[in-house]
Amino acid sequence: MRLSRYFLPVLKENPAEAQIVSHRLMLRAGMIKQQAAGIYSWLPLGFKVLKRIEQIVHEEQIRAGHIPLLMPTLQPADLWRESGRYDDYGQEMLRIKDRHDRDMLYGPTNEEMITDIFRAHVSSYKELPLTLYHIQWKFRDEVRPRFGVMRGREFYMKDGYSFDLTREDALHAYNRHMVSYLRTYERMGLTAIPMRAASGPIGGDNTHEFLVLAQTGESEVFYDAKVPELKLGDREVDYDDRDAVAAICDEFTTLYARTDETHDEAVFNEIPEERRCVGRGIEVGQIFYFGTKYSEAMGATVSTPDGTRVPVEMGSHGIGVSRLLGALIEANHDDKGIIWPEGVTPFHCGIVNLKQGDAATDSACNALYKALTEKGLEPLYDDREERAGAKFATMDLIGLPWRITVGPRGLGNGVVELTSRRSGESEEMSLEAAVARVAEIYANH
Ligand code: ATP
Ligand code: MG
Known about the structure:
Function: Catalyzes the attachment of proline to tRNA(Pro) in a two-step reaction: proline is first activated by ATP to form Pro-AMP and then transferred to the acceptor end of tRNA(Pro).
Number of helices: 14
Bound molecules: adenosine-5'-triphosphate, magnesium ion
GO molecular function: ATP binding; proline-tRNA ligase activity
Number of domains: 2
Shape: globular
CATH superfamily of the largest domain: Bira Bifunctional Protein, Domain 2
Protein name: Proline--tRNA ligase
CATH class of the largest domain: Alpha Beta
Largest sheet: 9 strands, mixed
Oligomer: single chain
Family: Belongs to the class-II aminoacyl-tRNA synthetase family. ProS type 2 subfamily.
Structural class: alpha+beta
Subcellular location: Cytoplasm
CATH topology of the largest domain: BirA Bifunctional Protein, domain 2
């Protein structure tokens, strides 16, 4: 993309309404525009990152054997009357009447609808296990929408629903979700810690939240200092191997890590003092095993091998896709702007032309652009008639992890400059070497 033809409405001033750095930077970098409290338009740069995150979530869900579908945002109230949640949900639910005076709602979550789909089409244990998920907009009329996309009213969520015959099978689905989530966050360059959580209004006896450590997080968290060091890395996971999947879950959940809701001071105090950490975290996902709560209420049963019928065992598992943009920026920024991890960056690399209109620099930038594109990379070329300082400031603000700077002096010596946004370090090399280096960096992303 050439910046002169793109739509990147960056702000020079710090927006007064933004209380935390991620919200401020998303507004300044022209990623979002607020349309009403907690409701945003996703401008091109923000939309691109949202899609990158969504893509990673899809890939890891599909890898775990989970199946994508798409349910609507608007739902009939009658489904929620069956489960009893139409009255229970309270003011967070946005209720709407259609022209025929029928009660509708903008879905805050989809347990009822997915159970309705299940009962219409599945009746035998032979069709299990089954996990269906979608990535769809949700609406919750939060009392205090704030922090930009972190606590919106309209937000984008991946929600998956597992169906199994037995509790044991359902716990394997739970574990599969935990491991697939760990992989998902790691690919984004994030450390998200599974913490034992309280079950809340959805009900259920097994639940973990995934928290990204950040001073601006809304949850208070208590954990062993060794927990954030745990990594999946590039180990292969066989999602059908129950013991292997359970062993990974044990590895990540045995050491102490809890939110204030489940915190137990006495157990916490058994950790050696120098490892006891108290901090704050952003909830970027949650997994639940809740058994037959919805299947019983809504008559979703399956036949068993011995010919009887039982309510299906269920779990629901969510990732805050739009909240992740905020969490990623909280965890990756400096005083100049955002620093995107390679896994989610909107463009792979920036190209800065120090002397726009100069035949030699223009043609080198065009060659660079073409070579990067041919490697399957997406560069953002700042081809505006702007001072170098302004071009650098824009690149630093929007946070592309790599920048190639092309100027007449360097070209005279046959080199361009490759700069890392994270370390700030620059290295001179030939144009071809710069292309090869950037391609190599992204080979694993
Ligand atoms: P919270 O405790 O932050 O209100 P929740 O526990 O009610 O969230 P879940 O029902 O677990 O939310 O939804 C799954 C994920 O969706 C959460 O882990 C979070 O990342 C995201 N999420 C929930 N509410 C919002 C919101 N208002 N804005 C953006 N993301 C949200
Ligand atoms: Mg939650």
